[in-house]
Design goal:
Length: 751
């Protein structure tokens, strides 16, 4: 929420509006007085990394009454406030809409009672409202992600990872209860991201007799050599008749029937606290900017809207349409129409649920398929690679294919380091960082003959390559060698996995979310150190090759003063302007600076050069320090986003490959030589898409290992604006108003 408060305040000041912060939620609005304070640029400095909200929040009885709203209207009119940005859940937003619809009537009443003059009423005749959804449950229909959801998932996964280690040592079963009274989103995604053995969510109560099935399945996992069981339960879990299923009931059941040592952990309010994740900080900053634009562009005819994210695009949605669908879900659940409740939650929710059910437990394949598939990792390690391998292996086995894994990338494929794997060989891989298979940067052209020989020897008909730019380049080389070697006329797919996010054909690579979070946590600490010393500027170098994604997004997440990247060329004049900007900043109360530099942003303006320049220009005003983050950006456990994204890409890639294999299979052999049989899978705007590598070749800058066009460059506008640089807003692209209906909810978004 703080990142949103910061973005709305700064964007408001930026466009020339007066901005007021209202403390303690609607209570402060009703009470007035000191609860309503005008804000300046520095009011929201150094809050982006804090959890909770610095302006406080409260549930307010008075605002639910007309008398309370009358007092609130008077307080707003006194300050001349006619635009309200509300950050909260569906209750808070519904309240705002009621307030808006009564506004004219409330002003009339204030004029009648002689509390305000008619002229004042005329001046403030219209109240515009825009909402930002802040709710860790992600239970607001129509929006992909609500503010706080990703951070709550981070807390849950930290606990799950910690519990997994103790459960494994003691051979225990753990029942974890997560928040979600009416919405199972947190339980569902954490179940999917941890590979839980069993999952209870309110939207889909288990069939009658589930007790027997669950115990049978837990017993089976143990007998196959697993040392632990994890059961995740949403606090609002119910059975088919609507009776609550409690975590203690589940625990007692396991103890009585199976005699397993079982413990319950209730996560409670831990999930609401802590430092916000990078995704949440960037999301809130984006939505805060969009909210101000929506208020500026509002007319008497535009309905109150909420600003939301769809894929990675900002959109505006009519507030009451979202509230209506959100109520429909609850109604469907109350009336036990559970299938419908899941559909109303949106396609993503439904997808998560179906994929969880596919991967949680091995179902024997209907029939053995004639196909063999090999899976390998290529390039530098990236978090989430193992999640993708795990789901690809399991979904391949479900389809009856023979699945091989290859160690050490294309080099391992050439050396014959190939082995067949089963369902349980990839158990426990989800939360592991790096690459369990081992990965190398070697490209196929150095060992083409040997690769072809092994493809023939193992009869490989499908190749799934999970990796960075080398994975894409490698598959392109294999495709271009098809004319020479018939063995390479097989189906190939690349899952982009690199912290640099520089693979064409996708907006997000696997592992970049984890890397941004790692860089952000380091920068948070560096900022804290700079605040302590006063008048200090840190120059932080990030990885990413020529791609500036990592430094730009980290820059937004930590509120950096500048981020130098190769794609946004800069000259000595720009550097001079940055130094002057920091010199001015040191005259205010914020006496610290943070500048990010992508490792290859400029041939001559190196990190060392920047340090020398800043040091000599800032002499007597501030001093400088260098920090090179290095390989810590590659490591660590994958974030919930990367676990979930990797899992989904693994599933979708193998399903696509199976379909293609079926199409090119005739007379007992696979012959795939068209361009569309070798693709990169990726998230593009709002959908998961497959792009042929031969097509992508035309839009790739191979010298700098970059796609020629990159969507995230428009985020740089936000970075500069929030760092107080005077820039023109003509390039700002406003979000479109979209409607929320049952039909729009059923569209596959891919997130």
């Amino acid at each position: 929420m703080n990142a949103a408060v910061r973005a709305v305040t700064r964007m408001g000041i930026y466009v020339g509006a007066k901005v007021f912060l209202i403390y303690e939620g609607y209570e402060g609005l009703v009470e007035g007085g000191d609860n309503i304070k005008q804000a300046n640029w520095l009011s929201v400095s150094n809050i982006i990394q804090l959890g909770g909200t610095v302006i406080g929040s409260a549930r307010c009885k008075a605002f639910t009454t007309r008398a309370g709203r009358l007092r609130a209207a008077r307080n707003l009119v006194e300050h001349g406030i006619t635009n309200l940005c509300v950050i909260g859940g569906d209750g808070s937003l519904t309240g705002a809409d009621i307030f808006r619809s009564e506004w004219a009537g409330l002003l009339e009443e204030l004029v009648r009672d002689g509390q305000i003059s008619e002229e004042v009423a005329r001046k403030n005749c219209r109240l515009n409202i825009v909402g930002l959804v802040g709710s860790i449950d992600n239970d607001f229909c129509g929006t992909d992600m609500t503010i706080g959801t990703d951070s709550a998932l981070h807390r849950i996964m930290e606990v799950v990872d910690a519990i997994t280690t103790t459960a494994q040592s003691h051979q225990r079963t753990f029942v974890l209860e997560v928040m979600g009274r009416h919405c199972g989103y947190l339980a569902l995604v954490s179940g999917l991201a941890s590979g839980a053995d069993w999952l209870f969510i309110p939207e889909s109560p288990p069939e009658d007799g589930w007790e027997d099935l669950m115990c049978e399945r837990l017993g089976e996992t143990r007998s196959r050599g697993s040392r632990l069981n994890i059961i995740i339960i949403a606090e609002g879990a119910i059975d088919r008749s609507g009776k609550p299923i409690t975590s203690n009931y589940v625990k007692d059941l396991v103890v009585q029937r199976l005699g397993f040592d079982t413990r319950v952990t209730v996560l409670g309010h831990v999930q609401r606290g802590g430092t916000p994740s990078a995704f949440d900080r960037v999301l809130s900053s984006k939505m805060g900017m969009e909210a101000v634009m929506a208020l500026l562009e509002a007319t008497p005819d535009t309905p109150a809207c909420v600003v939301s994210l769809s894929g990675n695009q900002s959109v505006r949605l009519p507030l009451m349409e979202c509230v209506q669908v959100t109520k429909d879900v609850q109604k469907a659940m109350d009336e036990k129409r559970f299938e419908e409740a899941i559909q109303l939650r949106g396609r993503n929710f439904e997808n998560n649920w179906n994929i969880y059910k596919l991967l949680a437990h091995q179902k024997p394949a209907q029939e053995k398929s004639p196909f063999s598939m090999a899976i390998l990792n290529v390039g530098a390690p990236a978090a989430g690679m193992n999640a993708a391998v795990r789901s690809a292996v399991r979904i391949g086995i479900c389809q009856g294919h023979t699945i091989y894994v290859v160690s050490d990338g294309f080099e391992g494929l050439a050396k014959g380091q190939i082995r067949e794997v089963g369902w349980h060989d990839v158990a426990g891989w989800l939360g592991r960082g790096g690459s369990m298979l081992g990965t190398k940067r070697t490209l196929p052209k150095t060992c083409m003959e040997k690769i072809v020989e092994n493809v023939r020897k193992f009869n490989i008909q499908g190749l799934l390559v999970i990796g960075g730019f080398e994975a894409y380049e490698g598959v392109l080389q294999l495709v271009e060698a098809r004319g020479q070697y018939e063995e390479l006329c097989i189906v190939m797919c690349v899952i982009p996995a690199t912290i640099s996010n520089n693979v064409p054909g996708t907006d997000f690579s696997l592992g970049s979310d984890t890397a941004v979070n790692a860089a952000m946590e380091s920068c948070d600490r560096i900022k804290q150190s700079a605040s302590g010393t006063k008048r200090r500027v840190f120059i932080v170098e990030t990885m990413g090759g020529y791609c500036g994604y990592l430094s730009t997004v980290t820059g937004i997440a930590v509120g950096a003063d500048a981020a130098y990247v190769y794609e946004d060329p800069f000259t000595i004049h720009d550097l001079k302007a940055n130094v002057e900007h920091l010199t001015d900043k040191m005259k205010t109360d914020i006496q610290r600076g943070l500048v990010l530099r992508n490792e290859k942003c400029h041939e001559h303006y190196t990190t060392e050069f920047l340090y020398n320049l800043y040091s000599s220009e800032g002499k007597g005003i501030f001093d400088c320090r260098i920090n090179v983050l290095g390989h810590l950006q590659q490591g660590g456990a994958p974030t919930p986003f990367d676990r979930n994204y990797g899992t989904k890409l693994g599933v979708k890639a193998v399903l696509w490959m199976s379909e293609k294999l079926q199409q090119v299979y005739s007379k007992g052999r696979v012959f795939a030589n068209s361009g569309d049989t070798a693709c990169v899978i990726g998230l593009r705007k709002k959908v998961v898409a497959f792009s042929p590598v031969t097509e992508l070749k035309k839009v790739t800058d191979f010298e700098h290992r970059l796609p020629q066009e990159q969507w995230w460059l428009n985020l740089r506008l936000m970075l500069k604006m929030l760092a107080n640089y005077q820039i023109s807003l003509t390039e700002y692209i406003s979000g479109q108003m979209e409607h929320v209906t049952r039909c729009t909810l059923s569209i596959e978004k891919g997130f």
